[in-house]
Amino acid sequence: MSSQKTVDELLLSIARDFETLPHQLQNIASYLEQQRANIMVQRISEVAEGSGVHPSAVVRFAKRFGFSGFRELQSVFRSNYTETVTPTRSYQQRVRQVIADGKQAMGSAQIARRFIDASRAGLDELAGTFDSKQFNTAVDLLVKAENIYVVAVRRTFSIATYIVYALQHTHKRVHLVSGLGGMYREQIRSIGKNDVLIAISFPPYGRETLYCSRVAQQHKAHVLAITDSALGPLGREARVTLKVSEGSAFGFRGLTSTICLCQSLFVALAYKLELKVEETTHHGGYDD
């Protein structure tokens, strides 16, 4: 029997060994980390399919970390999360099943409700897997930062512009790495060791965001990653990783959970800086 007692201990052990794992086992590691709230009710075939590997690789993975097989590995997730994740999982399954079973054309309002349901499921998962320690560390980094840089591309670019807008209501110097005119290199090159880069990206991960993250690390700045996995290319090297798994409908992932997390990050920072948000509203500086 493995000596691992909690999911967090198991994932920490996996993270330490991640770089030495074969590619297939890395895929399984990433899947387990992303789906930690759902593993307790998944079959080995589902885990294998989600990881893009054969079920035998899942067994090898379990044995690699001291378990007799997948069932024993799964029991770690089940014993830790039975009470907290079952409602979220069942809700997600209901949403997905309704979509899969759809046999007739839907009206516009029905489509809207599906997206609302998917967003609600994503928020439930965010609440269920919220890492208070990582969040507190993220806020502390921002409090101490001389400059805050923010980068995100394509789907998440709107999140970057929002958080820059919000952070500009503090006394911090805030910079949006927009890449306007293709100038990512020029916009990120001044980042230094007393600065923080907020990097937001999800699979397949923006190469521009990963580039900025690498530059920040080379310049000894801290990287605060907002992403889906601590084992992914963005989260793996970050100083702090805030994980978000968005709900999806009709093949489109939402942004609800990510924007909620970013708003929470700003308000927590503002509170810690003793910024009175209501006063900025009275002066016309902050528009909800």
How are the SSEs placed, and which strands pair?
Elements: H1 7-17, H2 23-34, H3 44-51, H4 55-64, H5 70-101, H6 108-129, H7 132-144, E1 147-151, H8 157-167, E2 173-176, H9 184-188, E3 196-200, H10 207-218, E4 222-227, E5 240-243, E6 248-249, E7 252-253, H11 256-272, H12 277-282
Parallel strand pairs: 1-2, 1-3, 3-4, 4-5
Antiparallel strand pairs: 6-7
Helix pairs in contact: 2-3, 2-4, 3-4, 5-6, 7-11, 8-11
Overview of this protein structure:
- This protein has 288 residues and is an alpha/beta fold.
- The protein folds into two domains: 7-75, Arc Repressor Mutant, subunit A, CATH 1.10.10.10; 132-282, Glucose-6-phosphate isomerase like protein, domain 1 (Rossmann fold, 3-Layer(aba) Sandwich), CATH 3.40.50.10490.
- The protein contains twelve helices and seven strands.
- Helix 2 crosses helix 4 (55-64), helix 7 crosses helix 11 and helix 8 (157-167) packs parallel to helix 11 (256-272).
- The protein is globular and about 55 Å long.
- Mean pLDDT is 81; it is low at 82-89.
